[in-house]
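In full, the data.
>
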Amino acid sequence: MNNCAGSIKILFLLFVAAVLSVPVAAAAQSEKSGPGEQETTGTPVLTEMTDSETEPAAEIVTEHQYPITNLGAYNIYQDLPKVGMPLRLLYSPFSKLVYGPFEPAADLYKFPYPSVEEITQRITTLKSTIEKLRQAAKEQIEAIPEKERAQKATEIENKLKNDTVEMSVHLADLYAMKFYKTRNEDYVREASEIYKEAYNDIPASFAEQTSVNMTMVLIAAKEFATAFPVIKKLVKKSSSTYLHNINDTMLEFYFLSGRLQKALDAIDVMIDKKTLAKESEIFLVRTGDVYFLLNQYQDAVEWYLSRLKPKEQATEAENLSWLYMAEALYQTEKIDKAIELYRVMKPFFVGTVYEPVILYRTAATVEEKTRILNNTHNQHIVAWMRATLISEKFLANPALFTEDNFVDVLDGLPMDSALRDQVTLMMAYALRNNNKMYEAMDYFHMLEVKSNNRYLRGALNELIAGMLYKKGLSTKTADEALAFIRYLLSLKYSLRTESPEEIYNLLHHNLALIGIENASAELTMRIIDSSVHTKRDKIYLELKMARDMHEVFAYKQSERVLGQIDVNLLGPAEKVEYYTMHIANLLDDVPPKKTTALDILTRWGNEGTTPKHSYWIALKKTEILYQQKEYESAMETVTGMIGTGDSATLPPEFDAFITPLIAYQVMLYNHLDKHKECLGQFFKNQTKILETKLKRDVLMSALSSAMALKKNAEINTLMDTAKTFMDKESYDWLNKWVQGKIWVDQINRYLDRSNLAVKNNEEEK
């Protein structure tokens, strides 16, 4: 990259002034959380869906909306080189050493360093001095008698090491300076080798300065594994006077080694500590770069606009940051400003790997972009151009595209390339436009599962849901409905809508076409269970499905649906509906499961229900126990709720339960030979109980008790009452019994047949 000045600086200033006058719209940022997948069981066995079953004749649709056109998952600059910041070496005490004809001064380390010629001369002289010291030490060792050589040789070697270690470190610094001036990577590799050799012998007096310089050189040499323990050791010294330089070096390490999330964490810490501090060049540039390469485009734009200023002698890293800002503006839909900045930056990148990206972004026509693509050789940029170009062509004229247009582009992309998602998105739209709904939904769902951005996931799911409703509600035959249900069962997700009622209507439409009496509860429940709705919404759907099955006499299927509901999650009204339906299914089944119903009623009663529900439970239990001729248990249930039947203190709505319980109490007194209590309760509450469905059996029970007690007056009164509340045929039949004096046996036989018999009183006979 070339450093430019003069007129380019003026263009910079004009551009920045223009951008700063435009507010930047907010953009969604990438997040890491995805939907979990849950496996469901109880899937009905269905044959595989074939194309002939699911796809009608192709019908091209051209009026579809394209709510998502950029998945935001790919950043071309992530695949291109990152440029390191200049090597600004720290001044160290060893610069005061005297060697050879040169006497290094403090300004030797003043950036941007002396000329290449002077640095080279200093390197040559210093290497010569080090070599002379080594040769002198060698001669000293050789001059020592053989017997004394071992011990004294060690002393000489240690002195040599002490005399040359500072020179070696300084030599490494000089090679680093020469690398900065020439960009010849041989010099930075030479510097790193000298640093590593001298590292363990560096005096404590300038260990920190040397370690910082060494780390910067290792980073420039891309020896990240060696650099990390050196800089990490320095970071732990929080009291260091060089902490500012250490933190900046750590940030540069994280950035150039690709640990961008770590770099972001370091930036957050540094921002907290730099409230009043002056920002360093590394911190200023790298913070924006990290935001950009993490696809946080809005943060990058705001950072660059507030801190990045034009310079006549900008570094390569700063120039690249301007390019990053251009792309960030493009991604935040500031297209005109982005193109303007790309054009301003173009002279800085002539002949570099970045030039084709600038040319593509500033190209005005498809033909020009195609020509640039054909003349580009970098494989990463070529892949990016192909994916971007076909997306742009599709959106410009979608009616001309089918999925076949995208196959070649996908085949040319690596399987792990994020660009595949962008091409797949356009291909899914093309499939949808050509009425291949099931294939299109599969691709949209694949993109939804892969996305780390919850906003994109939500938009894709909304798109899928809309397609599902359109397809599901348009089925007209049983075969189409069956194909649609099969497709739903193949999904690992299901339907999303603000109203779960819509899901049910969709299912009900297709199941009705198939024949709801033949649709298994397991099939429907799998679809509901795998939906993205809350448990409360799913319960609503489950109760509705159970109710519909009950109403078409599919009691067993209704029971299977109810069996999957967690009763503890039901509200009061839903719990009443659940238990009412549950018990009704059991009692309406053939044969009725009365014992199971009793167990459920008892369990519900023990859960702490409302008073009103308690009376309903008592009535249901009494009905079942009475039918099973468990009269004593039935009487315990009735007495436990109403005592003698005095309900004056209860609200009127309780009468719907209390009055039938009083009626049962009258009949139970008769069965248990408590005839006086039977007559007393009847005459006390006859107005209420004769309005119930039990009026005929209650009258017969009271008449039976009156006859057992030979209460002729009560018998006559009851017969008069019967004349009012019985049909004429039944009353004439009963009157003949009474007049013929055979009524006791006749009534008992009637009661036996009607399951309301009383015991014969042998003593009365």
About this structure: Residues 146-182 form the longest helix (37 residues).
